[in-house]
Design brief:
176 residues, disordered N terminus, Transposase_22, coiled coil
């Protein structure tokens, strides 16, 4: 074989076999002389064809990637809008909750204060009722309408004075 530019003939097989031959030759370090095949294809033609194929494949892959990105981008945009909607609703809910938290807290404090006051007042009422009962006297077996037109308080006061005597009461007791 001579050192001049030689022609490589491609077999009537696929382009991948040509590419595999070139890869084999490159890995073997045979870049000076490339044997010619039956078709008479030069190395420069082969490299030009491979470069065209490479550019075509890059363009096809780029187009496929761009086409497959459109539905994904649409889906991402829809998710972004939904997320923004949820965020705005969440912010509105948090604002509403914080606006209601202060009055609710004040109402709970007021309720607690009222419960304490109510308990205090109930204790006082019980105490007053018990004290009131201690000062009450029950007089039994007095016939009805025995006061004969005078006030009941005056009648009971005179009756106590009469029944108990002057040793117990010096003057008629004061009654309410």
């Amino acid at each position: 074989m001579s050192k001049s530019k030689s022609v490589v003939k491609a077999p009537p097989t696929t382009r991948t076999s040509i590419a595999s031959k070139l890869a084999t030759m490159a890995s073997a370090g045979k870049s000076e002389e490339i044997p010619a095949d039956n078709d008479g294809v030069s190395m420069s033609q082969l490299v030009a064809e491979l470069t065209k194929q490479q550019a075509s494949i890059k363009e096809d892959i780029s187009v496929l990637i761009q086409e497959s990105m459109v539905p994904l981008q649409t889906s991402v945009n829809a998710l972004t809008e939904t997320l923004a909607s949820f965020q705005s609703r969440l912010c509105a809910t948090e604002t509403l909750a914080s606006d209601n938290f202060s009055p609710l807290s004040a109402a709970e404090k007021t309720i607690q204060t009222l419960k304490e006051q109510n308990a205090t007042f109930m204790d006082r009422v019980d105490d007053l009722e018990n004290r009131s009962r201690r000062a009450n006297l029950r007089i039994l077996n007095v016939p009805e309408n025995s006061e004969k037109g005078q006030s009941t308080v005056k009648f009971i006061s005179e009756m106590l004075m009469e029944v108990m005597g002057q040793e117990v009461f010096e003057k008629p007791p004061e009654l309410e």
